[in-house]
Design goal:
heterodimer, A: mainly alpha, Four Helix Bundle (Hemerythrin (Met), subunit A), 5 helices, about 0% strand, B: alpha+beta, Phosphatase 2c, domain 1, 3 domains, 20 strands, HPT_dom_sf (chain A), Hpt domain-containing protein (chain A)
Amino acid sequence: MSDNPPDLDSDVQNSLSELMREDYRLLLETFMNDAEMRLEHLRLNLDEQNWESFRQTAHSFRGSCGNMGAIALQKSCHLAEQAGTAEDADAARSAYLQLVVLYERVETLLHSLLQKI
Amino acid sequence: MATVDQSTQGASPPPLSVLKILVADDNPADRMILGRLVEGLGHEVVGAEDGREAVEKFTANRPDLVLMDALMPVMDGFEAARLIKDSAGEDLVPIIFLTSLTETDALVKCLEAGGDDFLTKPYNPVILKAKIQAFNRMKEMHKTLRAQRDLISSQHQRLVRDQELAKIIFDRVAHAGCLSAPNLRYLQSAYAMFNGDILLAAYKPSGGMHILLGDFTGHGLSAAIGAMPLAEVFYAMSARGFNVRDIVTELNGKLGQILPIGIFCCAVLMEVNPSKGLVEIWNGGLPEVLIVGRQAELLHRIPSTHLPLGVANAEKFDPNPVVLAMAPGDRLMCWTDGVIESRSQSGEQYGEQRVIQLIDSYAGRPNELFDGLLRSIEAFHGSPEDDISLLEMIMQEQAPHRPAASSLAAHHQSAQDWQLGYTFRAASVRQYNPLPFLMEVLMEIPGLRVHAGSLFTILSELYSNALEHGLLGLESAWKRDSEGFSHYYIERNQRLSSLREGWIRVLLDHTPTAEGGILRIEMADSGAGFSHQPMAVNDGYAGRGLALVTALADEVTFNTQGNRVGVVFSW
C-alpha cells in the first residue's frame, strides 16, 4: 500500500452513475450487500482454513471492487488471493483485517454518495 | 471511435443487428454493470448467476454471444463453456470469458475450455463494444459461409439427382434398341454419356442393323439433351425401313433445327447388312472408323468426310455413305474422340497412330483387340479413362434376327382385295426413298405384318435393281472386288444426283385367299433392261440381291427386255 491508492475512484463512480442512471442506487446497494457477504465468507473460510474457497471469494470480490473503482480494496483482495493460494494463514488473516478496515471506509463513502442522489 | 460517454448514453447509432447476449456472472454488481453496458450498445441481455443457469439459459434462449465469468459457483465457466459449445452444434456461438485473472496459465485455460476470447475486469466499454462487433462479424461470416456451403451441397445433390434421372431415361432410350446383340461389344462410361456421347443400335425390318455413335459438342447435361431427339428419330426411322441416307438427312435437319449455334453432333451412322456382306458408313466428324479382318489385319480406315450433324443446311448436306464389303468375322471398330484424345500424365495424346500400331500388335488375335485397346489406353492415361465410348461390331454370316415390324396400327378391318400403282419420276427418285411408304401400305394388311422383314427385303432389292441398273446404268460386275465396289457406290451417288429423266413404276396387287393372301409385286423401270446388260447371278457380290429375292418369294419372273420384274408372295 506504499503508493497509497484511493479508496474510491470518483471518475469510475461518475461513469457508473451515468451508465446506470436510475439503477445507480441499486448498483451501490447491490455492491454493498455483496461485499458484506464476501467478507462474511472470508471470515468463515479463514476460521475453517478453507484456502481454496478463501482464494475464490477474494478473487470474485476483487472483480467487483475493480469495476466499482474501489482500488485499495481491489489490491487487498489480490493479496488475500495470493495468501489463499499460498495457504499462508498469517498473511490471509492480515489481508482479511485490511479488507474489513478498507471496506468500512468505502462503505462510508458510498453511503454519502447515496445521500446525494 | 466511440467514447465511453457516447456508448453509455446510447448516443451512438444502434448497431446493424441487435444481438441476444448471455451475461453470466455470479457477482451481482458486475452482472448489473456489464448488462447495462451491453444494453447500452443496443443488444438484448439474458442474465445468469452461475454456470448451470448459463447452460440452461443458453438452451432456452439461443443467444448469439456469451459473456461468462470464468470462476462461478455450482458450475464454473469452463465446464459451462464446454456444454454450451456442445449444445450449439454447428452454430458459431462465440464465448468471451470475463475474468480478473491475469496469470498467463489461467487465460490460456479460458481459451482451451472453448472460450474464443476474454475480457478483463474492470470492464472497458470501448473494448467490449469492439469485441462484440468483431465476433458478430465473424458470426455473420460463418453464417454466410454455412449458407453457401448448404446451397452448394443442395445444388450438388440436385445435380446428382438430375443426372441419375437422366441416366435412367438415357438407359431406357438406349436399351430400346439392340445394343445387346451378340455381335456387338461396347463400352460407354457414365461420364462419357454426360459429356454428350450416345450409342444406339436397332435391327432393320429387313434384317441387319443400324448403329449410331454420336458425340455432342460441349459438356454436361446440356450436351446430352440433344441425344433424346436424335434417338427418337433414329429408332422411328430405322423401324420404318428408312436407309442411312434418309436417317442421316433427317437427323441433320432435326438437329440443325433444334440445337443452338455452336452445338452439333459428330456422328457415325452405319447400316450393317450381313445377308449381302455390306456395311454402309457415314462418318461426320468422328475419328476414323476401322475395319479389321479375321486375322486382325487392318482392312479399311474410314475417315470423316462429312460435317457433323446439325451444321450443314439441307442443300449442302451430303448424306451419301461409304459402302464397303465386310466378310463374316470381319470387325468394325469405332469410338468417340475420348479414345484418340486421351492424355498421358505429361499431356501427350494417345492419337490414331498408337491405335494403328496396337492393331498391328494384335495380329492373329482379333478377339483380344477390344480389351487390348482399353488396357493400352488405361496404361497410357495412368488410370481407367472415364470419358470414352468404344464400339466393336463383328460381321455375322447372315441376318441374326428378323423381327416383325412393330405394331404399326391398331387391329382394324382393312381392304384386302386391291391393286395400287405408283410411278416415281426422276425428281422423286433423286430425293425420295419410297420404301417406307410402300411398306406402310402393305402393313395395312394385318396378316402381312409377320412377313414385314421378307417383304421389305424383296421391295428394297427390286427397287435398288431398278434404280441402280435400270435408271443409273451401273454395272454390277464392278462389285466383284472391294475397289470396284467403292467405285460402284461413288458412281451411284454421282449418277443419282444428276438424274433428270426416267421412272420407276411399282405395282402392288393383293388378293385374299382362304388361308391368307397372294401379293404380286411388279417393278418396272425406264432403263434398257438387263438383256443389254447381263446380270451375273450368284457371281460375287453382284447377284446377291436377286438370289435373296428368289429365296424369299414363291415366283420371280422377268420380261424379255429385262426392265420389268414380277414377284409373287403367298402367305
